[in-house]
Amino acid sequence: MIIQLSDTITSLQKDALLNSLSGLNIKSNEVKTQFKNYIIGIPKVDFDIRTIGNLDGIEDIHRVSDAYKLVSKKWKINRTIIDLGDDVTIGGNELAIMAGPCSIENEAQIENTVQHLLKNNIKIMRGGVYKPRSSPYAFRGLGMDGLKLFYKHCKENGIKVITEVMQVSQVEEMLDYVDVFQVGARNSQNFNLLDVLGEVDKPVLIKRGMSGTIEELLASAEYVFSNGNEKLLLCERGIRTYENAYRNTLDLNAIPILKEKSHLPVIVDPSHGIGLRQHVATMALAGVVAGADGIIIEVHEQPENAFSDGQQTLYYEQAEELYRKAKVLFQNI
Amino acid sequence: MIIQLSDTITSLQKDALLNSLSGLNIKSNEVKTQFKNYIIGIPKVDFDIRTIGNLDGIEDIHRVSDAYKLVSKKWKINRTIIDLGDDVTIGGNELAIMAGPCSIENEAQIENTVQHLLKNNIKIMRGGVYKPRSSPYAFRGLGMDGLKLFYKHCKENGIKVITEVMQVSQVEEMLDYVDVFQVGARNSQNFNLLDVLGEVDKPVLIKRGMSGTIEELLASAEYVFSNGNEKLLLCERGIRTYENAYRNTLDLNAIPILKEKSHLPVIVDPSHGIGLRQHVATMALAGVVAGADGIIIEVHEQPENAFSDGQQTLYYEQAEELYRKAKVLFQNI
Amino acid sequence: MIIQLSDTITSLQKDALLNSLSGLNIKSNEVKTQFKNYIIGIPKVDFDIRTIGNLDGIEDIHRVSDAYKLVSKKWKINRTIIDLGDDVTIGGNELAIMAGPCSIENEAQIENTVQHLLKNNIKIMRGGVYKPRSSPYAFRGLGMDGLKLFYKHCKENGIKVITEVMQVSQVEEMLDYVDVFQVGARNSQNFNLLDVLGEVDKPVLIKRGMSGTIEELLASAEYVFSNGNEKLLLCERGIRTYENAYRNTLDLNAIPILKEKSHLPVIVDPSHGIGLRQHVATMALAGVVAGADGIIIEVHEQPENAFSDGQQTLYYEQAEELYRKAKVLFQNI
Amino acid sequence: MIIQLSDTITSLQKDALLNSLSGLNIKSNEVKTQFKNYIIGIPKVDFDIRTIGNLDGIEDIHRVSDAYKLVSKKWKINRTIIDLGDDVTIGGNELAIMAGPCSIENEAQIENTVQHLLKNNIKIMRGGVYKPRSSPYAFRGLGMDGLKLFYKHCKENGIKVITEVMQVSQVEEMLDYVDVFQVGARNSQNFNLLDVLGEVDKPVLIKRGMSGTIEELLASAEYVFSNGNEKLLLCERGIRTYENAYRNTLDLNAIPILKEKSHLPVIVDPSHGIGLRQHVATMALAGVVAGADGIIIEVHEQPENAFSDGQQTLYYEQAEELYRKAKVLFQNI
User: Fold this and answer.
1) Which of B314, C76, C185, D270 could serve as D283's disulfide partner, Cβ 3.0–4.6 Å?
2) Which stretches are annotated as coiled coil (chains A, B, C, D) (predicted)?
C-alpha cells in the first residue's frame, strides 16, 4: 500500500496516521523523495482501507500487491519523464540516444566522440571510467581523472554524461561529474550501492542483471526510489542463456513487460545485448519498436583499436545511419 | 564441401568424381533435390580443391566449414524464395503473414477464420489438427477429419494451409491436404521425421527447439535439404530461460543471425514467443524490424473460448491492426 | 482422480460408474495396463468423492491434483520394481548397473563388451543401434542388423539389452530384440512414440529432455502408463544451461525430487551428464547417494577409437572400479 | 605466467627481472601475499621461457594459459588448506562443517545454536547479520550489533564465525569479529569488494554467482589472491535455470571441475542449492561424494519461525543425522 502524504500534513496528523497503521498491524516505511513524501505500508493481514483513507493529511492511497510498490504502474499511471536539464529529457516524446565508447581512453578520444555527437545532435554521451572486468589483470578504466576530462568536454558542448558507478565510495566523488549514474549488470543487486544512489539527486539507470528477472529489476529500482530518488531508468542489456551464437541474449520481451508493470522509462542496450557489431543497429531498431524510450550504444572512431568491447562497437557511419533510422521509427510507431 | 553437379553430368563422369573424392579420403553424400544434384563431401584432412575442380560434370564447388552445408549462406548467396503457388510466396518482397487458431475446432470456426483472412487479404492459414500436449488427458486435435475440412475451405478460397505434422506415419496421409508442413519445437530434432519430410515436395517450416541452438536449427534444416527437399523455412518461437514473466523468451537475436548464416526465409512466432495477447503485436512488429520474412500468429473469433492457447491468441480487431502495421513496417525498413 | 477397478467388476457396474462420473461432469479416461484397470477422472469442478466411492466394482480411489496421475506417488506409495526376468530387477534392493558403448560398432566389440560385463557380474548392456545425431552426415548406427547381433550375444550370456528407439515404426521391429526400450532426450516429448510404447509389454526408460522440467518428464511417463504400460524408468541425463565447462549440467536435484513425486525407479546417466571421462565415476557415485536406483554408463575397450562419445566413455579399469564402489555405496546409504 | 620470487631476492635482481619482462613485451603484475611474492606476467606474444628462467632471484616459473593464474592447479599442485586456528582447518583430511541460521536473530538464538554445535562437535558457525534481500522492505539483518554478539558467544566456546560481507565499508568494521568472510552470490563479481578482501588477512569464501560460470568464479578468486590474500574458499550454491521444482539448481558438476582446475578448497551449500528442507541432507551427502571439502548448511531450533529461509533450514535432529553421515561418508570415499 502506498500512502501519498499531503504537502501540508502536520506532525500531529502524521503521528495519528502512523498510529493507525500500527494498530492495524501494518509495517510502515516512510519514504521522502525529491518530489513527495510517502508511507509504504506492508500489511500482514487483510484490512479495510477506508479506516485509513479518511484520516487527515493524506493525498491518495493505492493498494499495490506486487513486491515492488513505488515503481509500479498500478500506482502511478502517468509515465515518468527524466529531465536532465537544458531540454534533454528521457521518456517523453523523443527517443533518447546515448552513445559513446565502452571505455574513456584519453582526451583526444573524448573530443573526437563529442564532435561525432554534436554533428548528429546526440545529447547524451556514454563512456566508462570504472570498468568491471572479470580478470584482475585487464584494463580497469581511467577512474576519476578520466571522468573529470570526460565531464569537462561534454559540459562545454552541452552534452550530458552517463557513466557506470561500481561502489558506494565512488558515488560522492563522482556526483559533480555525472548527469546519470549507471548501475551495471553485475551490480544490479548490489543493494548497498542502490541505497546510497537513493540518497542523491541525480538520475540512475539500472541494468538488468546477467540472469536477473523482471521482478528483481523492479525491486532494485524500488531500493533507489524508497531511499528518496524518483529519477530512475530501467535498462535491458541481454540475459545469459545456453545460446553461444551471440554474447548475450538481448531480451526484447522485457521492454513491453517493463512498460506494462512500471511507469519508469526503459532503455535498450543492443551493444552488450547481441554483442556483434553487424547486428547492433538491427536490434536497436527492433528495441525501439518493442517500446524502448531510448537506446544506449557503443561507438568509436576505430572500434578495432578500442580498449574494450571493440567487436560490438559501431563505426561512426554505422551509428549515424542508426540514429537517423531510430528517430524516424520512434515517431512512426 | 558442396559440389553442384551439372545437369548434363554422365554416369562415367560422376563415377570418376566419386573415385577422386574417395581417393582424397573424402566421404561423399549424394543429394538429389527438386532442383539440383549435389555431392556433400566431408573431408577428413586438408586437400587441394583444384584437384577436383577441373573434373568434368561439375557446375560449382564451395567450401563450407560449418556443420550445416546446403542451408548455409556461404554457398548460396541469393535468398531462397518459397513459392506456394497462386502468387503466394515467402521470402520475397512481401511480408508473409500466416494466421489462424491454435487448434482447428469445427467447421464453423474454419469458415469464420477464412472470412477474417479474406477480408484482410491474408493468404496463409495456420491451424493445428495434431496437437502436442504435455498431458495425455488434454485435447489432442481433430486429426485427419479436421485437416480435410480445413484444407477444403481454404482451397475453395485460395488460402494456403500450414499445419503441424508430428510423426512419420502422418506425412503421407497429410500430404494432399497441406501446403506447408510445420515441425514443432518438440520435434525440432526428430531426425526420422525430418528425413521423411526431405522426401516430399512440399515446403517445411521448422521451429527452433525449446532450448535449441541456432546451429542445431540449421542442422535440422540440413536433414530435410540433404534428403531432397530444398523448400525450407526456419522459425523462431521463443526459447526456455529462467524468466517466468512470459511463456517463452522470444529470441529476436536469432533472426539477424539466421539470415546471416543461411539463405532460408525466417519466420517469427510471437504468439508462442511471449505468450501474452497484449504483447503479441508489439513483438511481431519488433520481429519484422529484426528481419523476419514472415509472421505466424494465433487469432480466434473468441480467444477466451479457444480449445487451446487462448491467452496468447489475438482478437480479430487486434490482428487486423497488426496486419496493417506489419505490412507498412516491412516496406519501410 | 484415479479409480482402481476391481478385477471382478461387471460391465453393468462399470457403466454405472461411468454414468456417475459423467453426471458429476468428470471426464473419464479408461486405462488398462498389464496389471490393472483404472479410470482417470479429470473433474471440472469440485465434488464429493463419497458419491462415487460407494459404487460397486471399485477397489480404491485416490485424489491426485498433479497434471500426472498414474505415475504419482500420491496414489501408489510402494516403489515400483521393474522385473526383467532371470532375477534381473531395477528399483529393488540392488543397484542396477547398465553399461556398454555409446554405439554398437561390430560383433567383436559386442563380444568384448559382454566379456567385460560377465567378468564384473553386470546384467544389463547398453548400446545404440539408432543414433540421434545433430548432423545428417554423421554415423547413424547399425540399425536392426546391429541390434540382432547385440541381442543374440547378450541373450546367450544372460545379459539384458537396453537400446534407444527413435520412432514409432521401429517399435515393432525392435520388440523381440530388446529388454528395455530407451527414449532419448530429444524424444522425451515425442508423444506419438510414447503412445505406442504404452501398448507394448516391455519396460521403457524415458530420459529427461534437454531442457525438460521434472513435471514434463512425469507427464511423458504418464503417456506411456495411460496407454497401458506400467513398466517405466525415469532417467536424469543432464540439462542444458549457460555453463560450458561440461557437456550438460547433470542435475542431481532431480533424483530426490522424482523419488518424492513418483513411485517409478530413477536412473542416472553421468556419461551424458557431465560428459567428461575423468569425472563420470565421481558423478555416478554422487548420483547413487542422491538416491538413484541405477546408473547407466558408457564403457569401451578403447574409448579413443569409439565411433561416438569417446570423450565421455570409461576405460574398462575405470568402469570396474566404479562398479565396485557404486555397489558398496548403494548398500551403505 | 607465474614467477615465484625467492625470499632473498634483492632489489637489483627484481629490477633486472622486470626489465627483462618489459623487454619481452610482457605486462607485469606484482603480487605480494601473506606467504609469497609473485610476478604475474601477461605476455602479448610467444616467447622462450628460458630467457627469464635463469635470472637470479627466481624460485620457480609456471606457464598458466587460463585467464586465472594464481588460483590455478596448473601452478600449485598441492591442495590449499585453510587454517582458522585452534586446530580448525578446511581442505585437509576432515570434512569442514559450517552450520547455523540464515539470519542472526537475537542472543538467545545464538546461544541455542552454539549449544547445538558444541554438542555435535561442529567448529564453525554460519549466520547472517547483513542480508541481501531483493525487497527493500524485508528484514536486512542485525548488522554490527548482531555480529558482535555472534562473535562473542562463538569465541567463548571455541567456535569460528563465518558471515557475509556486502560492501567495502563493512570490511574494516567486521574484521575483528569474523573468522571467514563470505561473499554472497549477488556479490560474486563485486570487484571492488574482492579487491579490498584481498588486502586483509582473513580467509574469504566466495560463492558462485546466480548464473556464474566456473571460469568467472575462479577469476573472482584471482581478484582476492592477486591483491594479497591466498586464504580462499570456493562455494557452489546452485545456479539459476529454467527448472522451478527447486529454488536453485545445485550444480554438483562444479565440484570435481573446480577441484581439477584449482588448488582451493570447495564447499557445497545445499540449503540455498535445492532450497527444500527435506532434500538438503541428501544433496549435502551427494556433494561430499562429488568431492566437497566442506558443507555449509542452515539449521535452526524452529525453522518455521526463522526470520528468513525457513523452508530450507534443517531441524536440529535432521542436522545431527547429516553431520554423522557426512563425516563417515567423507572418510570412506
Assistant:
1) D270
2) none
